[in-house]
Specification:
The protein has 13 helices and twelve strands. The protein has 436 residues and is α+β, with helices and mostly antiparallel strands. The chain folds into three domains: 134 residues, Acyl-CoA dehydrogenase/oxidase, N-terminal domain (Butyryl-Coa Dehydrogenase, subunit A, domain 1); 107 residues, Butyryl-CoA Dehydrogenase, subunit A, domain 2, CATH 2.40.110.10; 155 residues, Butyryl-CoA Dehydrogenase, subunit A, domain 3. It binds flavin-adenine dinucleotide (FAD). The site of flavin-adenine dinucleotide (FAD) has 20 residues, from strand 3, strand 5, helix 12 and helix 13.
Length: 436
């Protein structure tokens, strides 16, 4: 549908949306099209498609079309209610993108670039949807694929790949965020399995996940081990965290483990220390680096349309030089971010990527995106604080991304440690730096 055509056509409609009970934004604000009708792609100025294989291009198009059609019309309402649209899970499953780079076990086996494109196309329309997939696929499923036994992979991955079951990944604790390697949740060996005791915080998807990948400290070895915990296990309780200002659709949970029994067969054999999570984090940090790219692209695309539709002083907003400068600055940021993200993928694919490079990618794209979405927010004036026009929502959604999977600071320090040889995580007075 052409931009703006819905505005005209819908004038006659009842201006109260019967589904959400809220005012129909296209009637209330006839000069600009809301994000429920997503704008065409305008942010790929340097033609990123040219760097993609035929398969990757097709994948990008498929995910984009799905998000624009299925998620764009409903996202503001679910974001406002801080609820998850469970009805889209089977549709996301049909896209066959869960499992990303994992080969076999019903997973798609994409290139790392393909997997990154999926995350960024999800984020372009809705960052929560992209976070849901990232946690499920690039953290939980990947941990099972890289650190699980053959039997565990065969048992869990096929249904996770089709999103018949959903997973979460539980590392962070109330007292250990950036310092996650010091985590305190314990795993005690008992006959036939392990007893998990402790708390986790911030765990995305955990309020409804069927499969929880959990990290706990082995009380015998004092090392960190990984476990697969099933929904409904006695002693397990996940409570939704309320009042978030970003990624409101993502259901983050506080989890309590009270003597949760995990059979031996569900202990991940490949997690014998905190360092073993680094194989997973190497991939997931690339994926997180692509979220700010997708978010910024969506914001630019909305602004590009909005500035041509909305008039002030008798001229479209796009005609004002100050607005043009902001638009061009946003576009420049996005081109640089895409190229950094793409190069990160290629370094990984050639086996050359270092942890510092992944961290720099995540830290830098989230920093540039922060400027980009702020400019977008300004460009939309008052509508820049309404979730209906995407930018306000994207602006808020970027904040947790700036801080999760290693905050900006922690990721820059990982890079700085690599290039200086000096770790600065722990103040010198406290002694040896923690193992991040
Ligand atoms: C929406 C959301 C979703 C999440 N999803 C998950 C999930 O699914 N699974 C999971 O396990 N975790 C998840 N997390 C947790 C996330 O990874 C942590 O929030 C993150 O690692 C930061 O930890 P923290 O919040 O405890 O901040 P803190 O560690 O308390 O940091 C606070 C501030 O201090 C700074 N700081 C800390 N240490 C240092 C240092 N050594 N030097 C300099 N500055 C420092 C930080 O950069 C930050 O600015 C999620 C978080 C959010 C917000």
């Amino acid at each position: 549908m052409a931009a703006g055509s819905r505005n005209q056509g819908d004038r006659s409609k009842d201006s109260v949306d019967s589904h959400s009970g809220s005012l129909d934004i296209s009637v209330a604000f006839p000069q600009a099209t809301p994000a429920s009708i997503f704008p065409p792609l305008a942010s790929d100025y340097y033609q990123f498609d040219d760097l993609l294989s035929t398969g990757e291009k097709a994948l990008r198009k498929k995910v984009r079309e799905f998000m624009e059609k299925e998620v764009a019309p409903i996202m503001a309402g679910y974001w406002e209610k801080a609820e998850f649209p469970f009805h889209i899970i089977p549709k996301l499953g049909d896209l066959r993108v869960a499992g990303g780079t994992i080969k076999g076990y019903g997973c798609p086996g994409f290139s790392i670039t393909g997997s990154a494109i999926v995350i960024s196309e999800l984020a372009r329309v809705d960052a929560s949807c992209s976070t849901f997939m990232l946690v499920h696929s690039s953290l939980a499923m990947l941990t099972i694929a890289l650190c699980g036994s053959e039997a565990q992979k065969e048992k869990y991955l096929p249904s996770l790949a089709q999103l018949q079951t959903v997973a979460c990944w539980a590392l962070t604790e109330p007292n250990y965020g950036s310092d996650a390697s010091a985590l305190n949740t314990s795993a005690t060996k008992v006959s036939g399995g392990w007893l998990i005791d402790g708390q986790k915080r911030w765990i995305g998807n955990s309020t409804f996940a069927d499969v929880l990948v959990v990290f706990a400290r082995n009380t015998t070895t004092n090392q960190i081990n990984g476990f697969i915990v099933k929904k409904g296990t006695p002693g397990l309780k996940a409570t939704k965290m309320e009042n978030k200002i970003g990624l409101r659709i993502v259901q983050n949970g506080d989890i309590l483990f009270n003597k949760v029994f995990v059979p031996d067969e569900d202990k991940l054999p490949g997690v014998n220390s905190f360092q073993d999570t680094s194989k997973v984090l190497a991939v997931s940090r690339i994926m997180v680096a692509w979220q700010p790219i997708g978010i910024s692209m969506g914001v630019f695309d909305i602004c590009h349309r909005y500035l041509k539709e909305r008039k002030q002083f008798g001229a479209p907003l796009a005609a004002f030089q100050l607005n043009q400068e902001k638009l061009a600055r946003m576009l420049g940021n996005i081109q640089a971010m895409i190229l950094v993200g793409w190069r990160l993928c290629k370094l990984y694919e050639s086996g050359k990527m270092t942890p510092g490079q992944a961290s720099l990618g995540k830290a830098w794209t989230s920093l540039r995106a922060r400027e980009t979405v702020s400019l977008g927010r300004e460009l939309l004036g008052g509508n820049g604080i309404l979730a209906d026009f995407l930018v306000a929502k994207a602006f808020c959604d970027l904040e947790p991304i700036y801080s999760y999977e290693g905050t900006y600071d922690i990721n820059t320090m990982v890079t700085a440690r690599e290039i200086t040889g000096i770790a600065s995580f722990k103040p010198a007075v406290l002694g040896k730096s923690s193992r991040l």
